[in-house]
Design goal:
Elements (H helix, E strand, L loop, with lengths): L6 H13 L4 E2 L9 E5 L3 E4 L2 E5 L4 E5 L6 E9 L4 E8 L11 E5 L31 E8 L2 E6 L2 E6 L8 E7 L3 E11 L1
């Protein structure tokens, strides 16, 4: 189901995302403590960044589950990378856009309606196009009850008001080839 907010809803939700209180870090800048690797992607930590590169499909999943939260992180991708952040996932052996909410990171997606900033199969195309290749970018998601709001580089790209409220883990994705990096991963539970 696709939701299309009016501009006043986007402004209010942007203000809520900005005004939310304190965060805790999900990544300690030195190792993958608190995360589980799923699949054959190779995840490493260098210079305070989580990096996946080369060939391999897989995820780096939080050990803890989250229901209502605000998540903030930075990401960097090259032009060949298919990546994303999956939220409210429940089965570590079945992480995909049909069982979780995939906040896509793939500017060059062959189906541009599913490009960076979309919620795959739920909010496509994104409300705004944001180009992210080859530089650091910010991603913020606000998940409260059935409402999900996604911002990329401070631009609201997706709003959904019919999400499943069931808590789940968060997973970072690397698919096939290319390089993706994540840093400054923080969460605030609501």
């Amino acid at each position: 189901m696709k939701s299309t907010p009016n501009s006043s809803i986007v402004i209010v939700l942007s203000s809520v995302l900005t005004a939310c209180g304190s965060y805790v870090t999900l990544f300690n800048d030195s190792d993958l403590n608190g995360w589980q690797q799923v699949g054959d992607a190779r995840w490493t930590v260098e210079r305070g960044e989580i990096i996946a590169q080369g060939a391999g499909d897989g995820f780096l999943a939080t050990e803890q589950e989250y229901g209502d939260f605000r998540l903030s992180l930075e990401f960097w991708v090259d032009a060949s990378t298919n990546s994303g952040i999956f939220i409210r996932c429940r089965e570590r052996g079945d992480i995909n856009p049909k069982t979780c909410y995939e906040l896509n990171i793939w500017d060059n997606h062959p189906r541009q309606e599913a490009r960076t900033g979309s919620i795959v199969f739920k909010v496509m195309p994104p409300l705004a196009q944001v180009d992210t290749v080859g530089r650091w970018n910010t991603l913020d998601v606000f998940a409260e009850g059935s409402e999900l709001t996604l911002r990329v580089n401070n631009v609201v790209t997706a709003v959904m008001d019919s999400a499943d409220k069931t808590p789940g883990f968060i997973a970072l994705q690397h698919f096939e080839t290319g390089m993706v990096k994540f840093r400054n991963i923080r969460i605030g539970e609501l």
